Prior knowledge:
The structure is a single chain. By secondary structure, this protein is mainly α. It is built from eight helices and no strands.
Amino acid sequence: MIVSVAAGTCFALFLVLGYFVSRRPLGVLDARAVYFRSQAIPLALIFTKSGRSTALWIGYVIAIAVYAMARLPLWIPLLMTGSQIASQVVVELFKRFYGRVRPDYWLIGIEAGLSYPSGHAVTAVVSFIGWSVVIALSALPVQVKYPLAALFVLWAVGIVWSRLALGAHYLSDVAGGALFGTAWLCTVLAVLRYH
Length: 195
C-alpha cells in the first residue's frame, strides 16, 4: 500500500512540476543550481556515460549472464532491462509533451532532445536504485549486499549530479526525472508485490 501511494504521489508531483517549468520563466532554484556547473568535469563525464544506453546494455548483458551462470531467476534481470527500456520510451513522450528546451550552457558537446524530465535521472532511479533494491533483498551475505546496494545508490546520485555539472539539465529537470523514476520503480515494485 505504501509503495502504491509513493508511486502516485511522485507521479503527481512530476506532472505538477512539469506543468510549472514548461509554462513559466526559469525559477530561482534552477538559476541558483548553476553553482553545480563546471565541477569535477572528468568525474561528471564518467557518471553521465554510465547512464547512457551503451553502458547500460553492457551492464544488463553481464547481469543476465551472471544470473544464468548462477542459475538464479532470469526474470529479475529481464524485468530490470524491460523496465529501463519502457521507462525511457515513456519519458521521451513526456519530453515532447512538455517541450522544455535544454539549457544553453552545455560544457561538453551539445545534446539533442528536450530537457524535462532528465532521462539520466530516470535511469539513475529505475536502473541503479532498482538494482540497489534487488541487491538489498537478495540472499547475498549482509556484509556484501548492503555495501553493494549503497554503492548503487551513490552511483545514482552521481549520475543525477553529473547532468547539472555538465550543464545538460536544469535542477528541475533532474528533480522531475527522479520523481518520474521513483514513481515508475514504485509501480513495478507494487505490481510485483501483488502478483
